[in-house]
Design goal:
With about 90 residues, this protein is mainly α. It has helices spanning about 1-15, 30-50, 60-85. Helix 1 packs antiparallel against helix 2. About 10% of the residues are buried.
Length: about 90
């Protein structure tokens, strides 16, 4: 699943650093995160389909994956705002 997370991070980074935003937009960054979620869902779904050998069963994991991403976003945004105030970051 790390390839899936890497792809999601790449998509987010490309969007957050596009059009001169340089990853500093408090409006554009959350939109970029939300826009990368469908890629994460698709990647998890395909991997679970391969592991389980069924197209239907992995659909049951979609709500849990969405909840995981929502909690991750709610934690990541404040942490990033704090880290940006530290000179080394």
């Amino acid at each position: 699943m790390s390839v899936n997370s890497g792809l999601q991070g790449y998509i987010f980074g490309k969007m957050a650093w596009s059009m001169g935003h340089n990853g500093k937009s408090l409006v554009f960054n959350p939109l970029a995160i939300i826009s990368s979620v469908p890629y994460m869902l698709a990647g998890y779904y395909i991997c679970e389909r391969v592991l389980l050998g069924n197209w239907i069963v992995p659909a049951a994991t979609i709500p849990g994956n969405l909840l995981q991403k929502a909690v991750g976003i709610c934690v990541a945004i404040p942490v990033c705002l704090v880290l940006k105030r530290i000179p080394i970051f």
